[in-house]
Specification:
The chain has 20 helices and no strands. By secondary structure, the protein is mainly α.
Length: about 500
């Protein structure tokens, strides 16, 4: 007698999203990060190899980032305030929901403007190159914001089940880490003139953007939100609010302010992020893949550790875990600077430890942001997810501009010699010896090392100290989320909170 097949058991019958719906969200979010990673990874190296003075580039980039950061707050307000599903002109294109309609309407724009940016001809006069950079960069950042704010805000509206949301955040972090590792390694290999084919930045960017657009389409076609309305609030209070209401939401949330301040300090001092590819080319004699080795070594251990994020969180708390991980991450950079980059084996070991700490830290940061949003929703009755994620984007882009500009400025002050090349392969062939087109002085090389290791290490330790003032308990945030979703009443929530907020 044949054995009867066991019926599949749904382990989470109260979860709202199907497995395919969750997969589409992870895939699309990875596509978004993939696209922005391509732009940010190569942008500075691409412009530096176009012969643009680094000091001039630092000033222009800083202004552009500040402009875009202000735009983020405006768009966050508009996305939370406006219901484009009520507009007849867009209704058929956008579908139903609160944040998905915005994503459906704008998802293809930032890949398009990325391609336009990287099509800048090297033969153009310097002034025309700067104009091309300014216009295409503003268009890219504008479109990126329209994609980023709704995508991040979806964490709050995909489901009203707190356990499912926590699972989504954890898996999202793992998927992003996996995508980040693969993308980082592949991108480094493609442009590496020693270990790889040495393709130009333009050819890599065009192909990458086509792939990026394709993997975002499943969410565009089949995405759905299940938690677009707040519960346990009076009347239509959560539906209509003014700009003053938005400011009050921000003002009341001291925990989000601490979170943003910590991010601000880390971002302002993240001087290596925009130039790591270029720096690795010079520090390691054309071998840009050196920076990918620690990523590959940390990959499997990081996955294993990240699967235990829930257990670590329950035992030590999210804030405490973030503080320890931040100290480890920052300390590794300080040690790296002190011992130098000549010992490649030690460099790789320290970078691997830093990578492990940072991957787990990223998961906990993804946990804390929604907690602070639930706190504000609980305190104000307003659904301000969009404005908070736009503020987070504001801080990231504003300080990212400052960090990148600071790194470029320091390199310029240390005597960077301008070069003009289509790719690292062409630059390597120019030669890096005295008198050759690709040559940089020992002083300029030391400046690169300061930008890569010393400034980020000090900055990250300082940003970690700020988190000592974050005192929103994990269990209290979960109670607030249950109240906001209607799972428990406000009275039940107040009775169970560990303290008065």
């Amino acid at each position: 007698m044949a054995k009867e097949k066991k019926a599949k058991v749904n382990k989470h019958p109260d979860w709202r999203l199907s497995r395919r719906e969750r997969f589409n969200y992870y895939l699309s979010d990875s596509g978004r990060l993939f696209g922005t990673a391509v732009f940010q990874t190569f942008m500075t190296s691409f412009l530096a190899l176009r012969g643009i003075n680094l000091t001039v580039l630092a000033g222009v980039l800083l202004v552009l980032k500040i402009i875009d950061a202000v735009d983020d707050v405006v768009f966050g307000y508009l996305i939370d305030k406006m219901k484009i599903t009520e507009w007849k002109a867009f209704r058929k294109l956008t579908g139903e929901g609160k944040y998905l309609p915005w994503f459906r309407l704008t998802f293809f724009l930032f890949p398009l403007f990325t391609i336009i940016f990287y099509l800048m001809p090297s033969s153009l006069p310097l002034v025309v190159k700067i104009i091309w950079f300014v216009v295409s960069y503003l268009l890219y950042d504008f479109s990126c914001t329209l994609n980023e704010v709704p995508m991040n805000s979806l964490v709050m509206t995909l489901t009203d089940n707190i356990d499912e949301r926590n699972s989504i955040i954890k898996v999202k972090g793992l998927v992003q880490m996996l995508a980040g590792v693969v993308v980082g390694i592949v991108l480094s290999l493609l442009v590496d003139p020693v270990a790889g084919p040495g393709f130009s930045f333009t050819s890599v960017a065009v192909v990458a953007m086509i792939i990026c657009t394709g993997i975002m389409i499943p969410l565009v076609k089949n995405g759905k939100e299940y938690n677009t309305e707040l519960k346990n609030v009076e009347g239509e209070k959560n539906e209509n609010y003014t700009l003053r209401d938005m400011w009050n939401c921000v003002k009341v949330n001291k925990y989000m302010m601490i979170y943003l301040l910590s991010s601000l300090i880390a971002g302002v001092t993240a001087t290596s992020s925009a130039v790591s590819s270029l720096i690795s080319f010079y520090l390691f004699e054309g071998k840009t893949m050196i920076l990918s080795i620690p990523v590959m070594l940390a990959f499997v251990p990081a996955i294993l550790i990240n699967t235990q994020a829930d257990s670590i969180s329950k035992r030590f708390g999210r804030r405490n875990s973030l503080i320890v991980l931040g100290i480890v991450f920052g300390a590794m950079y300080i040690v790296q600077f002190l011992v130098g980059y000549e010992n490649i084996t030690l460099f790789i070991i320290l970078s691997t430890i830093a990578g492990l700490a940072n991957s787990l830290r990223y998961v906990f940061m993804n946990f804390i942001a929604p907690d602070t949003i639930e706190y504000t929703r609980y305190k104000t009755g307003k659904d301000c997810s969009g404005i908070f994620y736009s503020l987070n984007s504001f801080v990231s882009k504003a300080i990212g501009g400052i960090g990148a500009s600071l790194g470029l400025l320091v390199m310029g002050l240390y005597g960077w010699n301008e070069v003009s090349a289509e790719s690292y392969d062409q630059l390597l062939k120019m030669g890096m010896e005295v008198g050759q087109a690709g040559y940089q002085t020992p002083t300029a090389i030391h400046g690169m090392w300061v930008v890569y290791a010393l400034i980020p290490g000090i900055g990250f330790l300082l940003s970690t100290l700020v988190l000592l003032f974050y005192r929103l308990k994990d269990k209290d945030a979960e109670l607030m989320a249950k109240c906001n979703s209607g799972e428990i009443s406000r009275e039940e929530c107040e009775a169970q909170l560990s303290k008065k907020y």
